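Anyone opening a protein record will find just a pair of labelled lines. The record below illustrates this layout.
***
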Amino acid sequence: MSNKQLKTGIIGTIIMVLCCFTPILVWIFAAIGLSGIIIYLDLVLLPLLAFFMILTGVALWRRRKST
């Protein structure tokens, strides 16, 4: 369970970092004509980034505690 949780946390964190700190989603939304949604990206992406970072931290803490 912990390895799956750790993998999910790391992959989610990497994806959220790419979406938050590079304009990948801005380019995609502009290309498909959804530029109006861009102003709401921070409301979704930053909490998701925090969630995945906490998930990764909990998985690492559980892994360290079990050994």
